[in-house]
Specification:
The protein has eleven helices and five strands, in the order H-H-H-H-H-H-H-H-H-E-H-E-E-H-E-E. With about 450 residues, the chain is an alpha+beta fold. It has a five-stranded mixed sheet.
C-alpha cells in the first residue's frame, strides 16, 4: 500500500506543472484557427447562397422565355384556327407571366435596375395588349390584324433579346463571383493549413513536456484504485457481517418468541386452567349466600382468571402466529386485516395469489412480520382509509406490496431510531432480498418487498 507521501509529492508536482507558454500558445492558435474556420464556413455559406440566387435568376429568365413563348404560340394558334381551347393556356401564360414580373422587383435588385424592370414590364404589357386586341378581332388574315401581329412579334423578339441579355449578364456575374470566391477560399485555406501546422507543432511539444505529469497521474490513479478496492472490500465485509448479525439476532429473537410462547402455553396455561378449576370447585361447594361478601369476590376472581387466559392466548398468538403455521401465509395475512380495533375504519383491498409455491417457514415468517409491522405503522400513524396488499410470485422472487392513502411522510424526516423500518430491511436482507419504501406527504406510503425463493 502506498503512503501519503506519494499523494503529497503528486500534489506538489501538479502545482509545479501549471500551464506554461506552450499551452498558452496552443490555446491562442486554436482560437485563431476556430475564428478563421468560422469565417471560412461563413464565406462558403455566402458563396452557396449567391450561387443559388444566381441560378434562381437564370431560372427566372428561362421561365420568362417559356411564358412569352406560350403566350405567343397560343395566340397565333387561336388566330389561325379560331379554336377557343388555345385561349386557356394563353390566359394562363399571361397570369403566370404577371406573377413572375412581381417577383422580379423583389428578387433581382443586383442584376436589374428599377428602370430596366419598368421597361421590361412596359414592353410585356404592350405585347400582351396587342395580342389580346388581335384575339378580339378573331381574324389573322386581315391586313391590319396581320400588321399588328407582326408588330407584336417584333416586340416579342425584342423582349426575348432583352431576356437573353439579362441571362448573359447573370452568367458573366456568376463567373466573376466564382473566380473571386475561389481565390478568397484558397487564401483562407492556406492560412488555416499554416495555423493548423503551427498548432500541431506546439501540441507535439506540449505532449513531450507533459509525459512526466501523465506518469504521475497514472501512479496516483493506481494508488487511489488500490485504496478504493481496499475500502470496497472492507465495506462488503462489514455489510456481510452486519447482515449475518441481523440474521442471527432475528433468528434468535424468533426462537426466543417461540420459547416464551411455549412456556406461556404449557406452564402458565396449565396453572391458569388449574386455578380456574379450583376456583369453580370452591364456588360450587361453598355456595355462599347472595349477601355473603365472598360471592362477588369469587365472581371477580373467575373473571380475572378468564381475562388472564385471554391475555395469555393473545400474547401467545402474537409471538407465534398459529394461522401462519397451520393455514399458510395468505390466510394469515387475511386474518391480520380482519383483526383490527373498532376505532379503525380502514378498508383493506387484498390481491393475494392463491396458488403460491411452497416456501420455507423462515421466508413465510419474514413476509408475515414485514406485513405485520407495516400494518401496525399504518394503524398508528397513517390514518389511512384504504390499504392495498399485493402478494404474488414474480420470476423467482416472492413480492409483497403494502400501499396506503394515508398522511405519508418525507423519507428524509425519518429518525435514526426508526427501528421498525430498519428491522424490516434487515429481515429482507437475510434472504438476499430488498425492501423499498416510498412515501410522500398527504399522498401515502408504499412498502415493497422482494425475496428470492432460492
Amino acid at each position: 500500500m502506498k503512503t501519503t507521501e506519494t499523494d503529497s509529492t503528486f500534489l506538489n508536482d501538479t502545482k509545479s506543472n501549471r500551464p506554461h507558454l506552450v499551452f498558452a500558445s496552443i490555446s491562442v492558435m486554436l482560437i485563431i484557427l476556430v475564428v478563421f474556420f468560422s469565417k471560412y464556413m461563413e464565406d462558403a455559406k455566402a458563396i452557396n447562397e449567391n450561387d443559388a440566387l444566381s441560378y434562381k435568376h437564370l431560372n427566372y429568365t428561362d421561365k420568362l422565355t417559356i411564358h412569352m413563348l406560350t403566350i405567343e404560340t397560343n395566340a397565333q394558334r387561336y388566330l389561325l384556327s379560331q379554336n377557343d381551347s388555345f385561349l386557356i393556356p394563353f390566359y394562363e401564360g399571361i397570369d403566370k407571366l404577371e406573377k413572375l414580373l412581381l417577383s422580379l422587383e423583389r428578387a433581382w435588385p443586383t442584376y436589374l435596375s428599377a428602370s430596366d424592370i419598368e421597361r421590361l414590364d412596359n414592353n410585356i404589357d404592350i405585347v400582351i395588349a396587342q395580342l389580346a386586341e388581335m384575339i378580339k378581332s378573331k381574324n389573322l388574315s386581315k391586313n391590319n390584324t396581320l400588321s399588328d401581329y407582326n408588330q407584336s412579334k417584333a416586340y416579342m423578339t425584342t423582349l426575348r433579346d432583352q431576356v437573353l441579355d439579362i441571362r448573359a449578364t447573370i452568367l458573366g456575374r456568376i463567373k466573376q463571383n466564382q473566380a473571386a470566391n475561389l481565390s478568397s477560399l484558397n487564401t483562407m485555406k492556406w492560412i488555416m493549413i499554416s495555423l493548423s501546422s503551427l498548432a500541431f507543432s506546439l501540441l507535439f511539444l506540449s505532449l513531450i513536456q507533459t509525459k512526466r505529469h501523465q506518469d504521475k497521474t497514472k501512479e496516483y490513479a493506481l494508488t487511489i484504485a488500490e485504496k478504493n478496492q481496499y475500502l470496497e472490500q472492507s465495506i462488503n465485509k462489514r455489510t456481510a457481517e452486519l447482515i449475518a448479525l441481523a440474521s442471527h439476532m432475528t433468528t434468535t429473537n424468533e426462537n426466543e418468541k417461540k420459547r416464551i410462547a411455549r412456556e406461556l402455553h404449557d406452564e402458565l396455561g396449565a396453572l391458569l386452567t388449574a386455578v380456574r378449576m379450583d376456583t369453580t370447585w370452591l364456588r360450587r361447594h361453598i355456595k355462599p349466600e347472595d349477601d355473603d361478601p365472598i360471592k362477588p369476590r369469587l365472581e371477580r376472581l373467575l373473571s380475572a382468571i378468564d381475562q388472564s387466559i385471554a391475555v395469555k392466548r393473545e400474547i401467545t398468538t402474537s409471538l407465534v402466529p398459529p394461522l401462519l403455521r397451520e393455514l399458510g401465509l395468505v390466510e394469515a395475512i387475511k386474518a391480520m386485516t380482519e383483526d383490527q380495533p373498532d376505532e379503525h375504519k380502514t378498508q383493506y383491498h387484498l390481491l393475494l395469489q392463491s396458488d403460491l409455491p411452497e416456501m420455507d417457514s423462515d421466508r413465510e415468517l419474514t413476509l408475515y412480520r414485514i406485513c405485520q409491522e407495516s400494518l401496525t405503522n399504518i394503524r398508528k400513524y397513517a390514518d389511512a382509509e384504504n390499504v392495498t396488499i399485493k402478494l404474488g410470485l414474480n420470476g423467482n422472487a416472492m413480492e409483497l406490496s403494502i400501499t396506503d392513502d394515508g398522511k405519508g411522510f418525507s423519507p428524509d424526516s425519518l429518525k435514526k431510531d426508526s427501528y421498525g423500518i430498519v428491522g424490516m430491511r434487515a429481515r429482507a436482507a437475510m434472504f438476499s432480498g430488498v425492501l423499498i419504501l416510498k412515501s410522500k406527504e398527504h399522498v401515502g406510503t408504499k412498502v415493497h418487498t422482494s425475496i428470492p425463493l432460492s
